Amino acid sequence: MSSKAIYLDESGFTGTNLLDPAQPYFCVASTDLSDGKAAEILRNSFPSYRGAEFKFGQLWRRERTREGMVAFSKAIGLIPDRVFVWVIDKRFCVLTKMVDFVIEPLLHEAGYDFYQNQLPPRLCNYLHFGLVEHEKIYADTLAVYDQLARFPSRETLRVAQQAYRKLARTAPRSIRWFFEWIKVGVDRFEEFHQLDEFGDSNEVQVTSVLASISYWRQNLGDDLSIHHDESNNFFSQAALWERLTSPAVPPQELPTSGTGPVPFPLRVTHTQAMRSHESATVQLCDVLAGLVSKLHLLRRDPDDAFSGELLEAGLGQVVMNGVFPRPEFPLGPPVRRTGPDAVDRMTSILFGP
Protein backbone atom coordinates (compact mmCIF):
# COMPACT_ATOMS: atom_id res chain seq x y z
CA MET A 1 0.00 0.00 0.00
CA SER A 2 1.33 3.46 -0.91
CA SER A 3 1.97 6.04 1.79
CA LYS A 4 2.23 9.80 1.92
CA ALA A 5 5.81 11.00 2.37
CA ILE A 6 6.37 13.47 5.21
CA TYR A 7 9.76 15.19 5.42
CA LEU A 8 11.14 16.91 8.49
CA ASP A 9 14.18 18.66 9.91
CA GLU A 10 14.92 20.62 13.05
CA SER A 11 16.68 23.69 14.41
CA GLY A 12 17.95 24.66 17.84
CA PHE A 13 18.63 21.24 19.33
CA THR A 14 20.80 21.45 22.47
CA GLY A 15 20.20 18.00 23.90
CA THR A 16 18.81 17.98 27.41
CA ASN A 17 20.19 21.48 28.08
CA LEU A 18 16.95 23.40 27.73
CA LEU A 19 18.35 26.56 29.31
CA ASP A 20 21.07 27.23 26.73
CA PRO A 21 20.78 31.03 26.25
CA ALA A 22 22.26 30.83 22.75
CA GLN A 23 19.50 28.51 21.48
CA PRO A 24 16.27 29.33 23.34
CA TYR A 25 13.94 27.73 20.76
CA PHE A 26 13.70 24.25 19.28
CA CYS A 27 11.71 23.82 16.07
CA VAL A 28 10.74 20.86 13.92
CA ALA A 29 9.49 21.78 10.46
CA SER A 30 7.67 19.20 8.35
CA THR A 31 6.02 19.11 4.95
CA ASP A 32 4.47 16.80 2.38
CA LEU A 33 5.89 18.75 -0.58
CA SER A 34 7.66 16.89 -3.37
CA ASP A 35 11.36 17.37 -4.00
CA GLY A 36 10.54 19.16 -7.24
CA LYS A 37 8.24 21.72 -5.62
CA ALA A 38 10.66 22.27 -2.71
CA ALA A 39 13.56 22.82 -5.09
CA GLU A 40 11.51 25.36 -7.06
CA ILE A 41 10.69 27.35 -3.90
CA LEU A 42 14.31 27.36 -2.74
CA ARG A 43 15.76 28.33 -6.13
CA ASN A 44 13.24 31.12 -6.65
CA SER A 45 13.74 32.47 -3.13
CA PHE A 46 17.54 32.43 -3.20
CA PRO A 47 18.52 32.72 -6.89
CA SER A 48 22.08 33.92 -6.22
CA TYR A 49 22.92 31.25 -3.64
CA ARG A 50 25.61 28.85 -4.84
CA GLY A 51 26.11 26.57 -1.85
CA ALA A 52 26.13 22.80 -2.22
CA GLU A 53 22.76 22.66 -0.43
CA PHE A 54 20.36 25.13 1.10
CA LYS A 55 21.14 25.52 4.80
CA PHE A 56 19.53 28.18 6.96
CA GLY A 57 22.73 28.94 8.87
CA GLN A 58 24.64 29.64 5.68
CA LEU A 59 21.82 31.67 4.15
CA TRP A 60 21.29 33.82 7.24
CA ARG A 61 24.98 34.73 7.48
CA ARG A 62 24.89 36.21 3.98
CA GLU A 63 23.39 39.70 4.12
CA ARG A 64 22.52 39.60 0.42
CA THR A 65 20.34 36.55 0.90
CA ARG A 66 18.26 38.05 3.74
CA GLU A 67 15.83 39.44 1.18
CA GLY A 68 15.45 35.85 0.04
CA MET A 69 13.96 35.06 3.44
CA VAL A 70 11.09 37.42 2.64
CA ALA A 71 10.59 35.71 -0.73
CA PHE A 72 10.76 32.31 0.98
CA SER A 73 8.17 33.44 3.55
CA LYS A 74 5.88 34.61 0.74
CA ALA A 75 6.19 31.28 -1.09
CA ILE A 76 5.50 29.27 2.06
CA GLY A 77 2.56 31.52 2.92
CA LEU A 78 0.90 30.52 -0.36
CA ILE A 79 0.80 26.85 0.69
CA PRO A 80 0.10 26.95 4.46
CA ASP A 81 -1.66 23.58 4.41
CA ARG A 82 1.50 21.87 3.11
CA VAL A 83 3.80 22.74 6.03
CA PHE A 84 3.69 22.52 9.81
CA VAL A 85 6.12 23.78 12.45
CA TRP A 86 6.33 22.59 16.05
CA VAL A 87 7.97 25.25 18.24
CA ILE A 88 9.31 24.79 21.76
CA ASP A 89 10.19 27.74 23.98
CA LYS A 90 12.76 25.72 25.89
CA ARG A 91 12.69 27.89 29.01
CA PHE A 92 8.91 27.54 29.28
CA CYS A 93 9.32 23.84 28.52
CA VAL A 94 11.34 23.40 31.73
CA LEU A 95 8.35 24.76 33.64
CA THR A 96 6.07 22.24 31.92
CA LYS A 97 8.49 19.46 32.84
CA MET A 98 8.34 20.52 36.48
CA VAL A 99 4.57 20.35 36.45
CA ASP A 100 4.53 16.97 34.68
CA PHE A 101 7.12 15.26 36.84
CA VAL A 102 6.67 16.93 40.22
CA ILE A 103 3.03 18.00 40.56
CA GLU A 104 1.21 15.44 38.36
CA PRO A 105 2.26 12.36 40.41
CA LEU A 106 0.72 13.92 43.51
CA LEU A 107 -2.61 14.51 41.78
CA HIS A 108 -2.57 11.07 40.17
CA GLU A 109 -2.03 9.51 43.58
CA ALA A 110 -4.96 11.55 44.92
CA GLY A 111 -7.23 10.10 42.21
CA TYR A 112 -7.33 12.94 39.69
CA ASP A 113 -6.91 12.85 35.89
CA PHE A 114 -4.52 15.73 35.44
CA TYR A 115 -4.67 15.56 31.64
CA GLN A 116 -8.37 16.19 31.13
CA ASN A 117 -9.55 19.58 29.81
CA GLN A 118 -6.05 20.59 28.72
CA LEU A 119 -5.21 21.30 32.36
CA PRO A 120 -1.37 20.92 32.21
CA PRO A 121 -0.68 23.51 29.48
CA ARG A 122 -3.34 25.85 30.84
CA LEU A 123 -1.89 25.60 34.35
CA CYS A 124 1.62 26.25 33.01
CA ASN A 125 0.37 29.36 31.19
CA TYR A 126 -1.14 30.60 34.45
CA LEU A 127 2.09 29.88 36.33
CA HIS A 128 4.24 31.51 33.69
CA PHE A 129 2.36 34.80 33.75
CA GLY A 130 2.72 34.86 37.54
CA LEU A 131 6.36 33.85 37.65
CA VAL A 132 7.66 36.22 34.97
CA GLU A 133 6.79 39.11 37.28
CA HIS A 134 9.50 37.76 39.59
CA GLU A 135 12.26 37.06 37.10
CA LYS A 136 15.04 36.09 39.52
CA ILE A 137 12.79 33.62 41.33
CA TYR A 138 11.66 32.21 37.99
CA ALA A 139 15.21 31.85 36.67
CA ASP A 140 16.46 30.24 39.89
CA THR A 141 13.47 27.88 40.00
CA LEU A 142 14.14 26.65 36.48
CA ALA A 143 17.90 26.38 37.00
CA VAL A 144 17.53 24.20 40.10
CA TYR A 145 15.08 21.86 38.42
CA ASP A 146 17.18 21.73 35.24
CA GLN A 147 20.17 20.48 37.22
CA LEU A 148 18.05 17.77 38.84
CA ALA A 149 16.61 16.70 35.49
CA ARG A 150 19.92 16.63 33.65
CA PHE A 151 22.13 15.31 36.42
CA PRO A 152 19.81 13.36 38.76
CA SER A 153 21.56 12.35 41.96
CA ARG A 154 21.02 12.47 45.69
CA GLU A 155 23.03 15.70 45.75
CA THR A 156 21.03 17.56 43.06
CA LEU A 157 17.83 16.28 44.67
CA ARG A 158 18.97 17.58 48.06
CA VAL A 159 19.77 20.99 46.55
CA ALA A 160 16.32 21.10 44.92
CA GLN A 161 14.59 20.12 48.15
CA GLN A 162 16.36 22.87 50.07
CA ALA A 163 15.67 25.49 47.40
CA TYR A 164 11.96 24.74 47.09
CA ARG A 165 11.43 24.44 50.85
CA LYS A 166 12.82 27.95 51.17
CA LEU A 167 10.66 29.28 48.32
CA ALA A 168 7.58 27.66 49.87
CA ARG A 169 8.21 29.95 52.88
CA THR A 170 9.50 33.11 51.23
CA ALA A 171 8.04 33.43 47.70
CA PRO A 172 5.53 36.22 47.08
CA ARG A 173 2.07 35.16 48.19
CA SER A 174 0.68 35.21 44.64
CA ILE A 175 2.98 32.33 43.61
CA ARG A 176 3.73 30.70 46.96
CA TRP A 177 1.08 28.02 46.44
CA PHE A 178 3.09 26.72 43.47
CA PHE A 179 6.19 26.25 45.57
CA GLU A 180 4.16 24.60 48.31
CA TRP A 181 3.13 21.97 45.77
CA ILE A 182 6.67 21.72 44.32
CA LYS A 183 8.12 21.33 47.81
CA VAL A 184 5.88 18.32 48.51
CA GLY A 185 6.55 16.80 45.10
CA VAL A 186 10.32 17.14 45.37
CA ASP A 187 10.37 15.91 48.98
CA ARG A 188 8.56 12.77 47.78
CA PHE A 189 10.44 12.61 44.48
CA GLU A 190 11.95 9.17 44.97
CA GLU A 191 8.54 7.68 45.69
CA PHE A 192 7.57 8.39 42.08
CA HIS A 193 10.84 8.34 40.12
CA GLN A 194 14.03 6.33 39.88
CA LEU A 195 16.95 8.76 40.00
CA ASP A 196 19.12 6.58 37.78
CA GLU A 197 16.44 6.62 35.05
CA PHE A 198 15.46 10.27 35.23
CA GLY A 199 18.22 11.68 33.02
CA ASP A 200 16.12 11.44 29.85
CA SER A 201 13.20 13.43 31.24
CA ASN A 202 14.28 16.64 29.46
CA GLU A 203 13.90 14.92 26.08
CA VAL A 204 12.15 17.07 23.44
CA GLN A 205 12.89 15.44 20.09
CA VAL A 206 10.65 12.38 20.32
CA THR A 207 7.72 14.39 21.63
CA SER A 208 8.21 17.05 18.95
CA VAL A 209 8.32 14.54 16.10
CA LEU A 210 5.33 12.72 17.61
CA ALA A 211 3.40 16.02 17.73
CA SER A 212 4.37 16.77 14.13
CA ILE A 213 3.33 13.36 12.86
CA SER A 214 0.13 13.65 14.87
CA TYR A 215 -0.69 16.83 12.95
CA TRP A 216 -0.28 15.06 9.62
CA ARG A 217 -2.10 11.99 10.87
CA GLN A 218 -5.11 14.14 11.74
CA ASN A 219 -5.08 16.05 8.45
CA LEU A 220 -4.29 13.32 5.94
CA GLY A 221 -6.16 10.08 5.39
CA ASP A 222 -3.10 8.26 4.06
CA ASP A 223 -0.56 6.04 5.72
CA LEU A 224 2.63 8.02 6.33
CA SER A 225 6.30 7.46 5.58
CA ILE A 226 8.75 9.63 7.51
CA HIS A 227 11.93 11.02 5.94
CA HIS A 228 14.51 12.92 7.96
CA ASP A 229 18.05 14.24 7.69
CA GLU A 230 20.48 11.47 8.64
CA SER A 231 22.42 13.92 10.83
CA ASN A 232 19.36 14.30 13.07
CA ASN A 233 20.11 12.28 16.20
CA PHE A 234 16.43 11.92 17.10
CA PHE A 235 16.34 8.46 15.63
CA SER A 236 19.10 7.29 17.93
CA GLN A 237 16.03 6.43 20.00
CA ALA A 238 14.87 4.03 17.29
CA ALA A 239 13.47 1.43 19.67
CA LEU A 240 11.20 4.00 21.32
CA TRP A 241 10.03 5.27 17.94
CA GLU A 242 9.31 1.73 16.72
CA ARG A 243 7.05 1.14 19.71
CA LEU A 244 5.20 4.40 19.12
CA THR A 245 4.65 3.61 15.43
CA SER A 246 3.86 -0.07 15.80
CA PRO A 247 0.68 -1.13 13.96
CA ALA A 248 -0.05 -3.38 16.94
CA VAL A 249 -0.91 -0.41 19.18
CA PRO A 250 -4.64 -0.73 20.05
CA PRO A 251 -6.85 1.92 18.38
CA GLN A 252 -7.24 4.90 20.71
CA GLU A 253 -6.81 8.65 21.00
CA LEU A 254 -4.48 10.29 23.48
CA PRO A 255 -4.86 13.95 24.47
CA THR A 256 -1.99 16.32 23.72
CA SER A 257 -1.18 19.88 24.68
CA GLY A 258 -1.01 21.21 21.15
CA THR A 259 -2.33 19.30 18.14
CA GLY A 260 -5.49 17.76 19.52
CA PRO A 261 -6.02 14.07 20.29
CA VAL A 262 -3.36 11.79 18.80
CA PRO A 263 -4.96 8.87 16.95
CA PHE A 264 -3.20 5.54 17.37
CA PRO A 265 -2.01 3.52 15.54
CA LEU A 266 -0.08 6.33 13.87
CA ARG A 267 -0.09 4.48 10.52
CA VAL A 268 3.60 5.17 9.92
CA THR A 269 4.75 2.56 7.42
CA HIS A 270 8.47 3.27 7.67
CA THR A 271 11.01 5.87 8.79
CA GLN A 272 13.97 6.69 6.56
CA ALA A 273 17.16 8.67 7.10
CA MET A 274 18.23 10.74 4.10
CA ARG A 275 21.30 12.71 3.09
CA SER A 276 20.08 16.27 3.12
CA HIS A 277 22.05 17.25 0.00
CA GLU A 278 20.03 14.63 -1.90
CA SER A 279 16.63 15.97 -0.82
CA ALA A 280 15.44 19.50 -1.56
CA THR A 281 12.44 18.86 0.70
CA VAL A 282 14.63 18.14 3.72
CA GLN A 283 16.59 21.29 2.88
CA LEU A 284 13.36 23.30 2.78
CA CYS A 285 12.50 21.96 6.24
CA ASP A 286 15.96 23.01 7.47
CA VAL A 287 15.43 26.56 6.19
CA LEU A 288 11.87 26.78 7.55
CA ALA A 289 12.81 25.44 11.00
CA GLY A 290 15.77 27.81 11.22
CA LEU A 291 13.71 30.78 10.07
CA VAL A 292 10.93 30.14 12.62
CA SER A 293 13.52 29.80 15.39
CA LYS A 294 15.06 33.09 14.29
CA LEU A 295 11.63 34.72 14.04
CA HIS A 296 10.88 33.97 17.69
CA LEU A 297 14.31 35.21 18.72
CA LEU A 298 13.92 38.45 16.75
CA ARG A 299 10.57 39.17 18.36
CA ARG A 300 12.26 39.39 21.77
CA ASP A 301 14.17 42.48 20.52
CA PRO A 302 12.16 45.68 21.09
CA ASP A 303 13.89 47.25 18.07
CA ASP A 304 13.05 44.37 15.74
CA ALA A 305 11.21 45.16 12.53
CA PHE A 306 12.26 42.26 10.32
CA SER A 307 10.04 39.67 12.03
CA GLY A 308 6.98 41.75 11.14
CA GLU A 309 8.13 41.86 7.53
CA LEU A 310 8.50 38.07 7.46
CA LEU A 311 5.09 37.52 9.04
CA GLU A 312 3.42 39.97 6.69
CA ALA A 313 5.09 38.38 3.67
CA GLY A 314 3.54 35.00 4.44
CA LEU A 315 5.25 33.33 7.36
CA GLY A 316 2.31 34.37 9.52
CA GLN A 317 0.10 32.00 7.49
CA VAL A 318 2.11 28.93 8.47
CA VAL A 319 0.47 26.58 10.95
CA MET A 320 2.63 26.66 14.09
CA ASN A 321 1.96 24.97 17.38
CA GLY A 322 4.07 23.80 20.26
CA VAL A 323 5.15 24.42 23.81
CA PHE A 324 5.11 28.14 24.56
CA PRO A 325 3.11 30.43 26.85
CA ARG A 326 -0.24 31.65 25.63
CA PRO A 327 -3.27 33.35 27.24
CA GLU A 328 -5.24 30.15 27.89
CA PHE A 329 -5.89 29.34 31.53
CA PRO A 330 -7.49 26.52 33.58
CA LEU A 331 -11.21 26.07 33.07
CA GLY A 332 -11.69 24.54 36.52
CA PRO A 333 -10.15 22.11 39.00
CA PRO A 334 -8.84 18.68 37.96
CA VAL A 335 -11.48 16.00 37.46
CA ARG A 336 -11.58 12.64 39.12
CA ARG A 337 -9.92 9.77 37.31
CA THR A 338 -12.34 7.08 36.14
CA GLY A 339 -9.84 4.84 34.36
CA PRO A 340 -6.35 4.90 32.84
CA ASP A 341 -5.22 8.45 32.11
CA ALA A 342 -3.03 9.62 29.23
CA VAL A 343 0.21 8.70 31.02
CA ASP A 344 -1.10 5.23 31.86
CA ARG A 345 -2.09 4.63 28.23
CA MET A 346 1.17 5.99 26.82
CA THR A 347 3.09 3.76 29.23
CA SER A 348 1.05 0.82 27.94
CA ILE A 349 1.94 1.72 24.35
CA LEU A 350 5.65 2.01 25.11
CA PHE A 351 6.12 -0.84 27.54
CA GLY A 352 3.05 -3.06 27.25
CA PRO A 353 0.10 -3.46 29.59
Largest sheet: 6 strands, mixed
Task: State the helicity in percent bands.
Answer: 40-55%
Q: How many β-strand stretches?
A: 10
N-to-C span: 30 Å
Structural class: alpha/beta
Order of helices and strands: EEHHHEHEHHHHHHEHEEEHHEEH
Explain how this protein is built.
There is one protein chain. This protein is an alpha/beta fold and 353 residues long. The chain contains 14 helices and 10 strands. The protein has helices at 35-45, 56-61, 66-77, 90-109, 119-131, 135-150, 154-170, 173-187, 189-192, 205-219, 238-244, 280-298, 306-313, 342-351; strands spanning 4-11, 25-31, 83-89, 112-113, 224-229, 252-254, 262-264, 268-274, 319-323, 335-336. Strands 8-5-1-2-3-9 form a 6-stranded mixed sheet. Strands 4-10 form a two-stranded antiparallel sheet. A hairpin with a 7-residue loop joins β6 (252-254) and β7. α7 (154-170) runs antiparallel to α8. The longest helix is centred in the N-terminal third of the chain and has 20 residues, at 90-109. It is globular, with a radius of gyration of 21 Å. The model has no long low-confidence stretch (mean pLDDT 91).
